[in-house]
Each structure stands twice: as structure tokens, then as C-alpha cells.
Amino acid sequence: MTHRTRARAAIAATSLAALAAATFAGVGTAASASAAVPSARAGHAQHVLLISVDGMHQSDLDWYISQHPSSTLAKLTHGGSEYTNAETSNPSDSDPGGTALMTGGNPKTTGVYYDVEYSHTVDEAGSPCTPGKAATGGDVVYDSPDDALAAVPDLLNPSNGTFPSFDENGSIYAGGADKNPAAIMNLKFDPKTSLNPATFPVDPTTCQPITPWDYLGDNTIFQVIHNAGLRTAWSDKHEVYASFNGPGSNGQSIDDLFSPEIDSQAVMPNGVPYPQDDDWAHIDAATKQYDGYKVQGILNEIDGFDHSGTSKVGTPAIFGMNFQTVSVAQKIKSTPTTLIKNANGSYTTSAPQAGGYQWVNGKLVPGPVLSSALDYIDAQLGRMVSTIHKEGLTGKTTIILTAKHGQSPQIRRSWSPSRTARSSTRSTPRGPRPTRPTPS
Question: What's the pTM?
């Protein structure tokens, strides 16, 4: 990377961090479905809570607020500054969109076009390499096969194939077999063991694997803030989003990274796999359970602990998470929304309902599953706001509510090149498979 490009990236990351810290004077304020804009009350924030609602459209937020004027989402939006003219990355998806949020860059400068892209500057993983020889070019694959344990047998029916491990590397569950999903709170990212470097593209100069964070062409807000001596934390759906640490960071500029693998097998709180026998991203009730672990991590961090709630480390200067439940609710044709605990301690799921959107009085609005997902997001944001109040951080905390990207199209089969955004997780029904390599 040239010095000029690196300098531009540093300015972009610093500006985004400053914008976040200067946006609002306290809780009860947020930017909706896009970026934030400064207000006259700038300069008071010591903590920035960044919330991404994957897939949420501005129209989803507007509809929800109109239907729930006393909701947390309504209070955050009306009490703060709202900017509705932001655009997602192009192409638009979770990895390039999330990377844009964290860098201020676009795919041309970050190098991240999708979870899988082609690069002329690398050698493909596993290909012969001679140090110093010109690059042969190849696919850059940063996706769930990067997990150190990427082939855990299906716990309900091993003949169906495998899932990646919920804990990425077997550090929580022996052999990756999840029998106690709540134990995932003890997951800690290790840049040396959490991912499988054999799947990474190779640097033709050194013939060494290129880590996800070193692949980035721009630096990140976490680098800027960490290098200033302040604490950082982030929670997301794949451990490979350790890329947000940024180049040259050794994977360590996010002090507390919590990223349980969403493509792993969904397991109910009692350790029994969901009867639908799928991953966390294809059963809406399971996605809420999954997001709930990340929410608990945020609540612990607001309280001044690490995400696991075991070590007192102080509330981070910048921290946050990505919600996945809205994205899943938008894409799944039919799915249960609720996990029900029975008197004997077992669990069942509610009856499936329609995902996506529906026409009501000539308007396209969220259907029952998506409406439930938005209710869930609102309730969790309410818990975060209450905890911020409880900890006396109201006048010291900025909340930014945004989306990595909006899910498109809202109407099935209404595709056009200028409007579409490829789904961020698998959208096809699950069937027998030896691995789970589909990008998400």
C-alpha cells in the first residue's frame, strides 16, 4: 500500500471515530439505519456503542417507529440525530458493508468485495509458492471454512454432513460438540489458534498466509482507538471478522472480540439441537437465542466487565455488536419465531410463520416474523439503554444505530443490478453436505 493510501485510510478511520464520539451528548440518542451526524451538544461522549442491525432498511425502521411510537427505537431516533442519505458499500453485503463501517473505505481500497473474492496480488491457498516469484493470483476465501474446526458432525444425524464449530477451535467444546450453548460466553479470540491459516491466501513475497486483518487495505477505527490507549470490543457472527483489527495489528487491536460461529449447528439452551436441524441463521427463534449471547456480552461490557462477565476491565471506549435476527427474518420463507420452555425443562418452538414482507392496505410492510424480529431488537436495545442508565453512563455514551447493509429486494424476484444485495447467509434449504463452505 502506498503512503498516500495509508494516510487517507488513517484520516477516514480517525474521522469516523471522532464523528461517533462527538455525535450525541448521551443515551436516548441514535442515528437510524445509516451513519450519524454531529450535533451542537458534541464533545461529551467517553464511550461509543455501535449497533448494526444486519439487513435493516430505512423503511423497516420508519414502519416500526410509526407502529410503536413509544418504543426504544422511536425514542433513540427522535431524541438524537438521524441521517437517511447514507449508502452501503458496492457490492453490498455483510463483509464489505461491515468493513466499510470499520474503515471508512470502500471495496476498492479495503480489498473486501465479499467473503470470497479474486486477487491478482496473492497466491491461492494450497498452491505452490516460491518466495519472491510473481503472484499467480487466486481466490481469497475468508469464510466459515477458515474455522479451526470446520467439520463437526451433525449432532442429530451425522449422515447429513457437518457444521463448523460454534466455538471455532474446540476451546469450549470437546471436538466442537456443543452440549451447553451458554458456555459460549467463555469464548476468547486467539489470533494464533481460532482460525485455520491453511485456508488463507498466500503472500507471494514470503509464501506465508495472509491473515484476514493484514489483507485489509485500510486501517480501522479499532486500530486508531486502541493505539490511543483506549479499550475496544466488538461482537459479530464469524470469527474471521477479526479482520476488523486492521493491517499490522497482529489481530490485537480489538481488545475483546466475541464472534461465535453463526453457521454452526443451532442448539437449544438445554443442549438439544433444534428439531429443524439447521444452523443459527436459518431458524428465527434460534437466531434470537444466538443474538442473545452477544447482547449479554454488551451488557457485561457496559457494566465494566469483559464480554464473559468474569474480568473487571472497564467499559470500552468503543464497542458494539451486529444483530442478525432481522436479516434472517427477511430471507426465510417460513420459520418459528419463539423458543418455548416446557414445564419439564425441555424446549419446543412456536409454529412457523411467514418471513419477509406482506402487502397491507397497498403498502409493503414487515410480515409476522420480521415484525417479531424488530420487536426483539427493540427489547434488547431497551436493556442496553437501561444498563447504561444504571451504570451512570447516560451523559457519557453515544449510541449509533446503523446497518451493514439493507436486505434487497423486499419483494421476492424483484431484482435489478442497481438495487440487489446478495443475502448474507445461506438462503437455500439445508441438505446433505460434506462441508458448509457457502459464504455468509
Answer: 0.86
